[in-house]
Amino acid sequence: MKHKFTEKILEILENHFQENGEVIFEKSELLQYLNLKTKSANRGSKARGSFANLYALYVIIEDYLNKGFDKKSGYSKYEGAEFTKIFKRQRELPFGAKLQNHALNNRMNSEFQKFFQNTEFIPILRNLETNRYWINENLLKVKIGKKIFNISKVIIEIIDQYAQAKKDSFEKFIKTCLDLQEIESKNQQEVEDFIMKLLAPNVDARLFEIVSYAILKYFYHDQKIFWGYEIDKLNEENLKLFKTGRTNANDGGIDFVMKPLGRFFQVTETLDIKKYFLDIDKIQKFPITFVIKTTEDVKNILKILQENAQKLYSIDSIIKKYMECIEEIINIQILQKRFLGAVKQGYLKNILHEIIIQSKVEFNYKEDK
After folding, report:
1. What global pTM score does this model have?
2. How many CB atoms lie within 10 A of CB 164?
3. For the residues of 264-310, what is the DSSP string, one character each?
């Protein structure tokens, strides 16, 4: 598979290996893996970025280079990279501040093997007792004829270029948001159109979650409830929606929480019933509202989930209990409707401002001082 960033990969290979570059690209499973993982590089900030697995490779190969093993033998006798050091290093890389250890421990290897089912090599080697890591050197050495080419420096350069491309596209996105914020009072329609385009199936999952949160926050925030412990002493309180953490975080399947109702929201882009039931199990079958990155009709979504549940589970009472935990389905059309409603109430500027704030936090964006 070739895409726009493939040209950059081939250019880097040509700079390092001249006429052998394309042959090395075709023969290397690791380079083919990088090619698959970097297809979003030139598709703008709306395309999902792939950093966890790439950075797992990056930090271990960087350790390999720092120790000079690209120029000398003896890697098989090396004690390995320390987990604490490479874990800290991946969080220093662009967009890596909140990465977890999953990719280092297994996720990267699992995905690689999924793409290359007949491969004889596992990329990341790990000693569970010492918590030390190695890159599988067999994947760094590409043999053409009698000559062996080490691609370790190339891999580092490719990932650096990919991260820079994603950073550039995100900075462009932030600049557009800020520019729109400046002209919001003069050209409201342009701001509306920009946000509406972020409510689409092809939008980056993190951006979709951020935009969904901003819209729902201002959809609910002027709705009031009355509650209390005594009938003659009721409290009047506006509904408040809180984002519980970063997107893709290991937070038990709760993306937003509403106060004072204690209502849970989970943002997803899949109709895999296993994922829904897993989220429900994580919070012991407490009701959840699912915000889904799809244009599929809500009735069809529920029908699909019901049918898939029946295929997986044979007990009607179990299926009924799980399905009852789906409190509400919010699809793209509902979000669009709620967004336009909030705009009519004068909250367009607030929503855009919230998107900017949450995006900067999510993507670790720091403005130059």
Report:
1. 0.68
2. 12
3. EEEEES---HHHHHHHHHHTTT--EEEEES--S-HHHHHHHHHHHHH
